[in-house]
Amino acid sequence: MNRVSLLAISAAAILTAACSTEPQGGQVSLTMASTMAVNGGGTPGSETYTDGTNTLTLTSVEMVLREIELKPVEIADCDAIPEPTECRDFEVGPVLISVPLGAVVREFSIAIDPGSYNELEFEFHMISSSDPADDAFRTAHPNMVDKSIRASGTFNGQAFLFDSDLDVEQEFNLASPMVIDENTLNTNLTLRIGLSLWFRDQAGMLVDPNEGNKGGQYESIIKENIKQSIEAFEDRDGDGDDLDEI
After folding, report:
1. pLDDT digit string (tens) for 1-11?
2. Rounded Cα distance, 191 and 61, in Å
């Protein structure tokens, strides 16, 4: 073997060794869960709550989300234009999410670069009746026009259909940064939703979801309840419970 060949082999070996010490990136999954499912309540497909006087059963909850993304520690704002390339998108959207009732469901997975991430962001997005950016979604889901959330079920035995035009960005700071490196290449984030908190008045009593529709007496209270009902945290085993992550 000549000297040139030996040099080429040596250079390749050095390069391979150097590359093998660098983290090659990993994968992060996003899981959706309801608080009741995590606590062992409900049955797959429905959840029932009572306050001792009223009984509410949910059989369907759908949300339109957009711009579901992870923010790195070193980036101040993923909403900057142009968006920093380090911000990682699960879904640009809009996308229709069926909230898993009585269950924990893994929704999305993304490849992710090594680094530290400390915030999950997304938007509740009301589907416009005219915005060209929503054309494809309107065609696929015409019943969601002018809405971002839809829920159905029964309240004290009577059927209800709840619609909301909530349109707001949500930001969730992780309790500690999620680190992707050679020791943790794959992990999971959970978005946990306290559905039992949605349809309640300021005293904590259950209310008729029909009264949360446009112009209803509980519209603003329920919108605020929805915004406050969501938690996001790193959940390595994807079971929807953050106690094992502390």
Report:
1. 544 443 343 44
2. 15
Pairing of strands 104-112, 186-193: unpaired
> Over the stretch 84-140, which tens digit does the pLDDT of each residue have?
888 888 888 899 999 999 888 989 898 888 999 999 999 999 999 999 999 999 999
Partners of 60 in the β-ladder: 152
Residue the block writes with tokens 């959940």: 235
Cα separation, 228 vs 175, in Å, equals 17
Q: Which residue's entry shows tokens 């339109």?
A: 64
Residue matched to tokens 């559905």: 195
Dihedral sign computed on CA atoms, order 126, 128, 131, 136: positive
Give the H/E segment covering residue 111.
strand 104-112
> Which residues, other chains included, contact 103 with Cβ-Cβ below 8 Å and sequence gap of 6+?
33, 34, 37, 44
CA 79 – CA 118 distance, rounded (Å): 15
**pTM for this prediction:** 0.84
Q: Which two tokens stand for residue 207?
A: 């209310």
